[in-house]
Each structure stands twice: as structure tokens, then as C-alpha cells.
């Protein structure tokens, strides 16, 4: 790292990493600007997701026993909500928020003080933290026309409403029990029920972006709900297992099925960001 930075000796870099006090948010801002400049805006997608950090003991800020996909179970851990930016040039993590559990931390001032948590930080849901990162990125000039995320974020109406108010399109995963209103009907219908009624010719073979073994093909169907706005429930079917996945999509202008599929499929880029950051840059430390 010292050589890459142009230093003759390693001492200055070691002092920076071991002893210096620096503003993490200011560094985040620099990284976000750098990433946006170098990744460009071609087909840009902002991706929200969370990842866990398994910990021992209870002294680490905001640690508790909670569900984390990192361990695949309920484990003593910290959880962070992250924002990644992905374009045709590459992908990078550009923001983060550490999740503050409501009961074990918010109401325990002594524990908060011991861990160095500022008094101004209050409880916020993970979708709310995700919206903070998205709004900050858009305000900082990240010209990404799309946002995607998994069910934990797609199920949150305020997050989707915030994106629509900013004119930012989205393709967000939702549960099969999500109810959608078809053809301006009075009674919303479960998404999986609507999928069962789709005719064979409603399904189209589309690639959800390249995978490790080439294009990842699924059968996709989008459901026109009969409204003037550009809002489409989207269904993905695994062509081998017939397993279904569901998305809610919105865009300020007309979008093609291929574009919505691309946005939904790029969500997996954030997992690659986590893997690289934990494996190469010590994010899990």
C-alpha cells in the first residue's frame, strides 16, 4: 500500500493505519466521489443490502444476538446496511450505516457511552438506513437512474415512495404474499396467485446478467396493472425448479422488460462487493 501511494518507506502508512485519528464519514465521501467518477453513469444501479459481522462478547458497538446471513443463523454479531453502485464499468461499496438495535442499545445510555455511540444517533429501521444512504448518494451527484434491493427493503412502502418522489426507478424484491391491484380492481390479489393465472405465452426467457458460468437465464413475466403510471409487478421463474421470485417495479418513464430484468439481476453485485471487501480489505474485522 505504501508503494502504491508513492512512499519510499512503510512507516508513514503504518502510522496512518495504526495511530492516526481520521473522519470515517469524510473518507466515505471521498470514496463515493471517486467511485462515481470512475464507474460512470452507464446503466447505473444503486444496490441496498445488509451484511453481518460475527463478534464475541458484548462490548463492540451495537452488537447483539441477531439474524445474520453471514452466519446463516441467529448469532452474536453486528449488522450494517450498505449501498453499492454498479455500472457497466464495475461496482463498488459507497456508503454504510451500522444498525442500532432498538431495545438492547437505544435504551441503555451507559452501554452506548462505553461503546462511543453519539447521543444524537437514535433507532432507525434498516429500510430507513438504506434510504439515508440512497438520498445521500443522489444528493452527492450519483446519477444512477435505478435502485434495487431484496425483500427486506422492497417490502417497505416509505422507501419505495421516497424513490418515486425523487424520480428514481426501482426493481425491488418482495414476498409472494404481496398484494397487487390488477386492472384497477377493488380487491388486491396476492402476487403468487396472479402468477398462477398467467398464460404460457406471458413468460419470456431473459438473462439476469452474466454469472460465473455465463448468462443466468430465467423465465420472466411482467404484469400490467392497467394504470397509467409505469408500475409493474415482475415475476421470475427458475426454469429448472419452477421456484418463483417476485419484484415490484416502477420507473418515471417507460421501461422495457429487458431493462427491468437487468436491474433486478444486478442486485447480486453487492454480494461480490461484500466478498471482496471482507476477503481483501478487512471489512469483516
Describe it for me?
Residues 9-184 form the Transposase IS701-like DDE domain. This is IS701 family transposase. It holds the Pfam family DDE_5. The chain is an alpha+beta fold. The protein has one domain (23-280): Transposase Inhibitor Protein From Tn5, Chain A, domain 1, CATH 3.90.350. The protein has helices spanning 11-18, 24-39, 102-106, 109-115, 126-139, 151-154, 157-165, 191-196, 257-265, 269-280, and strands at residues 45-54, 64-68, 73-87, 90-98, 146-149, 169-174, 179-180, 189-190, 204-211, 214-222, 231-237, 244-250. The strands form 2 sheets. Strands 1, 2, 3, 4, 5, 6, 9, 10, 11 and 12 form a 10-stranded mixed sheet that branches. Strands 7-8 form a two-stranded antiparallel sheet. The radius of gyration is 21 Å and the shape is globular. It starts with 10 loop residues before the first helix and ends in a 5-residue tail after the last helix. The mean pLDDT is 90.
Keywords:
10 helices, IS701 family transposase, alpha+beta, globular, 10-stranded mixed β-sheet
Average pLDDT value? 90
The poorly predicted ranges are none
Q: In sequence order, what are the helices and strands, one letter per element?
A: HHEEEEHHHEHHEEEHEEEEHH
Which radius of gyration do the C-alpha atoms yield?
21 Å
Strand content: 25-35%
CATH class: Alpha Beta
- Per CATH, the superfamily is Transposase Inhibitor Protein From Tn5, Chain A, domain 1
Amino acid at each position: 500500500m505504501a508503494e502504491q501511494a508513492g512512499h519510499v518507506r512503510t512507516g508513514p502508512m503504518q502510522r496512518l493505519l495504526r495511530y492516526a485519528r481520521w473522519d470515517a464519514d469524510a473518507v466515505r465521501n471521498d470514496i463515493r466521489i471517486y467511485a462515481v467518477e470512475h464507474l460512470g453513469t452507464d446503466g447505473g444501479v444503486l444496490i441496498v443490502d445488509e451484511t453481518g459481522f460475527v463478534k464475541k462478547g458484548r462490548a463492540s458497538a451495537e452488537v447483539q444476538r441477531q439474524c445474520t446471513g453471514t452466519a446463516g443463523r441467529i448469532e452474536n454479531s453486528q449488522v450494517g446496511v450498505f449501498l453499492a453502485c454498479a455500472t457497466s464499468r464495475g461496482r463498488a461499496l459507497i456508503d454504510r450505516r451500522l444498525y442500532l438495535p432498538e431495545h438492547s442499545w437505544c435504551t441503555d445510555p451507559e452501554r452506548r457511552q462505553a461503546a462511543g455511540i453519539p447521543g444524537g444517533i437514535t433507532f432507525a429501521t434498516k429500510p430507513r438506513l438504506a434510504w439515508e444512504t440512497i438520498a445521500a448518494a443522489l444528493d452527492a451527484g450519483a446519477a444512477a437512474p435505478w435502485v434495487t434491493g431484496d425483500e427486506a427493503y422492497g417490502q417497505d412502502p416509505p422507501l419505495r415512495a421516497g424513490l418515486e418522489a425523487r424520480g428514481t426507478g426501482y426493481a425491488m424484491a418482495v414476498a409472494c404474499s404481496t398484494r397487487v391491484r390488477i386492472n384497477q380492481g377493488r380487491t388486491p390479489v396476492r402476487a403468487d396467485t396472479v402468477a398462477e393465472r398467467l398464460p404460457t405465452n406471458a413468460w419470456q426467457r431473459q438473462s439476469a446478467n452474466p454469472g460465473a458460468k455465463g448468462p443466468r437465464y430465467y423465465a420472466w413475466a411482467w404484469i400490467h396493472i392497467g394504470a397509467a403510471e409505469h408500475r409493474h409487478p415482475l415475476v421470475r421463474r427458475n426454469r429448472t425448479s419452477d421456484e418463483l421470485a417476485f419484484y415490484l417495479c416502477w420507473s418515471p418513464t417507460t421501461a422495457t422488460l429487458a431493462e427491468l430484468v437487468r436491474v433486478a439481476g444486478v442486485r447480486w453485485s453487492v454480494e461480490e462487493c461484500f466478498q471482496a471487501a471482507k476477503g481483501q480489505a478487512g471489512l469483516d474485522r
